[in-house]
Amino acid sequence: MKTEYQHRLDMMEVGRRVHGRGWISSTDGNFSVKLDANRILTTPTGVHKGYLSVDDFIVVDMEGKKISGTRNPSTELAMHLTCYRQRPDIGAVVHAHPTICVAFSVSGIALAQCLLPEVVFTLGGIPTANYAPPSTEEVPRSIEGPIKDYDAVILERHGSVTVGKDIFAAYNTLERMEHVAEITFHSRMLGNAKPLSNAQVNELVKISKNLGLPERKITCNDCNACGKHSGGACSLVAGGTSMSVENALVSTDSRAAASTPSVEKVAASVLPNVSPELLALIIREVKAELAAMTPLRG
Question: What is the CATH number of domain 4-190?
Answer without folding.
Answer: 3.40.225.10
